[in-house]
Write the structure tokens for this entry.
Amino acid sequence: MYETYVTVQGRLVADPVVKDGRHGRFTTFRVAQSERHPDRADPGRWTDSPPSFYDVSAFRAVGENAARSLRKGQPVVVHGRLRVRQFQRGDGSPGTAVELDAAALGHDLRWGCTSYVRNGDLAPAPPAQAPADPPQPAGDPATDRYVVDDPGGEGPPAPDTGPLVPPGRGQAA
């Protein structure tokens, strides 16, 4: 009948798992999503809302590529068909599961870079080489506190127009 499609941005809470089902192999994983908003009590700081969890199933090529590409903790964007399922736990209490059948997914490029390789072009990875200058750690947006880098720096906090940076690093004085 009518299907609801949604797009969810979040982080994987565990590595994807490949399973065998009635209609072939598929990949499942769980995504946690929370909303980041300005902290009214501490201007310039941001706070995360309690997380929402989504059980994602990916079939055929999408599932195969997800199992090859995604790992726990990585930021992802998932677009797919939404299902909300009611169930009863072992202790008799009611529960609700929010599930997505992924139509498309990938890494969230706001937090890093990724490389694209076509399925037919999969080849062994080249040997790793040490970088000339080790990169500076950017921090973990899931656990570190971040503020908006406002080059103006005067007056009330500006709307979210700059990049999120750890406090004390990259802020205008």
The longest strand covers residues 75-88.
